[in-house]
Amino acid sequence: RRYAVHDYVLISNHNCTEPTACANLVNRYGFPEGGGGATTSEERRGPYFYLLAQVVSVHYGEDAQYYTVRREDNMEEQRADAQWMELITNLAGIDAARAAARKRETDSHGVDGRSLHRASRVDGSVPPWLRPCTDGLSNATRHVRE
Q1: Could you read off the pLDDT of 74-119 as tens digits, one per residue?
Q2: What's the predicted TM-score (pTM) here?
Q3: Cis-peptide, bond into residue 47, ω within 30° of zero
């Protein structure tokens, strides 16, 4: 599968194991656990291990094509390989995935009333509860250094 600049994609974060750290993950249709605007039972079905991103550039390496994507949860750019990406074209799914990705930044409490922690500390370090998510995503993609 080839992707174009400005395509919305879901990038895999399948190694995430901490529920509060992975609250912004969605299924392959872009919907978070609990529905979030899904209209069919298929759209409400897991697993939930994707994060919304947008393709910002396409690169042609020696061995394979790869992409730079901008994550919707923290707006960081990183490298992504096609094998860890899924195209998403359903506007309702894109909107739901965007809302889920940004939920950590805007909400202080989850849908069930549990407090959600911030994704990073003032000193920029990653808290231990978030490490499974960041490690899992690092395995799937590598940050682009400019």
Answers
A1: 899 999 999 999 999 999 999 999 999 887 544 444 444 333 333 4
A2: 0.67
A3: yes
DSSP string, the chain: ----TT-EEEEE-TT---TTTTTT-B-TTSPBTT-TT--STTTT-----EEEEEEEEEEE-SS-EEEEEEETTT--EEEE-GGGEEE---HHHHHHHHHHHHHHHH-SB-TTSPBPPPSS-TTSPPPGGGHHHHHHHHHH--BPP-
Residue type, 94: I
Q: Which pLDDT band holds residue 63 (cuts at 50, 70, 90)? A: confident
- pLDDT(57) > 60: yes
CA angle 16, 21, 23 (to 5 degrees): 90
Question: Nearest CA to 31 among 103, 99, 104?
Answer: 99
Asked if residue 70 has pLDDT above 50, the reply is yes
Burial of 31 (0-12, 13-18, 19+ CB in 10 A): buried
